[in-house]
């Protein structure tokens, strides 16, 4: 199902990242939250992009989705703020990457996908918070009327 892999990413992070202290948030969780009111540390999971990668004659489509996982931390000190923020984000980032890199999840039927870490946005620092993102590529399949599956998604694309 299109965009379902975001759910797998969130659940995997909740299960495998105690460093996030249960704070794995989605776009829906963050809607209407003012920046100053954000909870930190936390991991944010946001859809960056999706595009069709392959289509079968029966109308099934394999999609490539790119999700952004952002480690959010409050700045730790005024002096050398960037280094302090990076140091405080390191355990959270490392745990998130370990949890997601190569993780296999069910796409549909007997089709499995494997998450891949891919280039993402650059880190961003402001007066109160630091955002350290990385991107994850996932595949999903929407089935057409012919009921066929896309070859690349069948057994662990």
**Quaternary structure state of the chains depicted:** single chain
Beta-strand residue percentage: 35-45%
The main β sheet shows up as: 6 strands, mixed
The rough form would be described as elongated
Corresponding CATH architecture: 2-Layer Sandwich
Number of strands: 8
Number of DSSP helices? Answer: 4
Counted up, domains total 1
Mean pLDDT: 85
Q: What's the CATH H-level superfamily name?
A: Phage tail protein-like
- Assigned CATH class: Alpha Beta
Structural class: alpha+beta
Secondary structure: helix percent: 25-40%
Your description of this structure?
- With 157 residues, this protein is α+β, with helices and mostly antiparallel strands.
- It has one domain (5-154): STM4215-like (2-Layer Sandwich), CATH 3.30.2000.
- The chain contains four helices and eight strands.
- It has helices at residues 5-16, 27-30, 81-100, 151-154, and strands at 24-26, 42-55, 61-74, 104-108, 111-114, 116-118, 124-125, 129-142.
- The strands form two sheets. Strands 1, 2, 3, 6, 7 and 8 form a six-stranded mixed sheet that branches. It has a two-stranded antiparallel ribbon with strand order 4-5.
- Strand 1, helix 2 (27-30) and strand 2 form a beta-alpha-beta unit.
- Helix 1 (5-16) packs across helix 3.
- The longest helix has 20 residues, at 81-100.
- The radius of gyration is 17 Å and the shape is elongated.
- It starts with a helix and ends with a helix.
- The relative contact order is 0.24.
């Amino acid at each position: 199902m299109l965009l379902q892999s975001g759910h797998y990413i969130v659940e995997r992070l909740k299960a495998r990242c105690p460093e996030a202290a249960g704070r794995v948030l989605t776009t829906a969780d963050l809607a209407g939250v003012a920046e100053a009111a954000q909870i930190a540390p936390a991991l944010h999971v946001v859809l960056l992009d999706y595009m069709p990668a392959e289509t079968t004659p029966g109308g099934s489509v394999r999609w490539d989705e790119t999700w952004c996982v952002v480690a959010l931390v409050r700045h730790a000190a005024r002096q050398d703020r960037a280094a302090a923020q990076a140091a405080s984000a390191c355990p959270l980032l490392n745990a998130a990457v370990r949890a997601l890199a190569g993780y296999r999840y069910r796409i549909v039927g007997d089709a499995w996908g494997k998450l891949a870490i891919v280039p993402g946005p650059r880190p961003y620092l402001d007066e109160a918070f630091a955002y350290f993102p990385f991107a994850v590529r996932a595949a999903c399949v929407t089935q057409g009327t012919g009921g066929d599956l896309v070859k690349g998604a069948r057994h662990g694309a």
